[in-house]
Amino acid sequence: MSSLQISASFCSSCSSSSIKKVNAAINVPKLPQVRFSIPKIPPTTTKLVVQELNRTLDTITPSQLDVTTSTEIYDDNHSKATIQLYAILEAVSDRIEMHNNMCEQRNNWNTLLLNSLNMITLTASTMVGLNTAIDNSALNLSSTVLFCAATGMLLIMNKIQPSQLAEEQRNATRLFKHLQTEIQTTLAIGNPSEEDVNSAIEKVLALDKAYPLPLLGAMLEKFPSKYEPAVWWPKTNTNEFKKQALRSVKKTNNGWTPELETEMWQILEVMKRKDMEDYDRLGNLALKVNKTLAKSGPLLTGIAAFGSALGSHGLSWPGIVAAVAGSLAASVNALEHGGQVGMVFEMYRNCGGFFKLLQETIEATLEEKDCEKRENGELFEMKVAITLGRSVSQLRQLASKFVAYDPEGIGMDEFASKLF
Predict the structure, then answer these.
(1) Which range of residues forms the domain containing residue 150?
(2) Domains in the chain, number
(3) For residue range 252-273, what is the model confidence (pLDDT) as tens digits?
(4) Pfam family example for this protein (predicted)?
(5) Is 175 within 8 Å of 207 (Cβ atoms)?
(6) Distance of alpha carbon 89 from alpha carbon 82, whole angstroms
């Protein structure tokens, strides 16, 4: 009870004190007024300033005005080139998607057609084998029809080579992605020119020609007379380089030395003797194997269809021939299209084109006599080394090895490229 009384009295005292009003007043002293005096400019001085400005404007020549105008035109040209490069970049991105989709589609063609053909061929061979035992005309007729259908489908499949078509689209996708990166790098560096735009357009058109999308009328020849490397870049006019070099004046070495030029020629010679000759041999070998298998498959299924048709006359040996030929045809199809021999041939064509492009690049660069118009020598050496899968020091060691082996007539035991 005592605690309750103390708390009640305390609360009553607090409430009574809060009711009281507190009056306070703050007196702020007044600040003194400060006056600023601004000197007046005499009229004579104003007239002198105006006269001086007029004399300055009179000294500006029309050539100085032309410089300003040309600068504005220069900026307009560069902004136009930038817009054009972005438009080309969009087209390149669209082509990447198209070639990627076509690659998946044609790879599915190869798988589905191979499985269907082998199933048809083996089923017909089984029917022929049963027909020799039970002599059923229905089995004989069905096997003949299946062998004829397999022959027609195999002729179409061997003509278009779906595995080779899929490899073409893979290469096109990779090369368009490379071109996309080049354009993005040009835009990131800044100040693109009309030459950059024209070069990008030429590369796009060259890739379209090298790797066409449609089949009818534009498909690449799958069985050429001989192996030729793929070409997906616009041709460089080296004669024009020579004409420009004669009219130019050499200013700096631009990173080039006589030793570096000699090194590039030596690397090029190693590429010709080892890498390019080896891929030429392998490409011709793959072409011959692909031609042989492409002819053997339809020939075997045709023999099987003919033997199955003769088996309806009560003869046993044509049925045996048909069964054996059908089994061999299935094996040949599995080797050709399951092993994707056409894809291997296209891979060799692409690798040969890789070395041919590098050869033309080195030759066009070294034939340019004006070092100032070349790409920087150290940068060019680094690019060649990376392209061949080597470091700069390894590239120089390869050139030194060639110098040591060539005078003695010893063949190089090392390829220029470590990538392929």
Answers:
(1) 72-213+243-405
(2) 1
(3) 688 899 999 999 999 999 999 9
(4) Chloroplast_duf
(5) yes
(6) 10
Residue 279 inside a domain? The answer is yes
Distance CA 163, CA 342 (A): 6
Residue 382: inside a domain? yes
Residue type (1 letter), 10: F
Cβ contact 151:329 at 8 Å: no
The three-state DSSP-derived secondary structure of 223-285 is CCCCCCCCCCCCCCCHHHHHHHHHHCCCCCCCCCCHHHHHHHHHHHHHHHHHHHHHHHHHHHH
Q: Which residue shows structure tokens 């490409």?
A: 283
pLDDT, tens only, 47-77: 554 455 455 545 545 444 444 444 444 455 5
- Asked whether residue 373 is domain-assigned, the answer is yes
Query: What's the pTM value of the predicted model, to 2 decimals?
Result: 0.75
Q: Does 420 map to a domain?
A: no
| Residue 226 CA neighbour count, 13 Å, CB half | 3
Helices (H) and strands (E) in the chain, counts: 13, 0
Select from 215, 216, 210, 214 the least CA-distant residue to 228.
Answer: 210
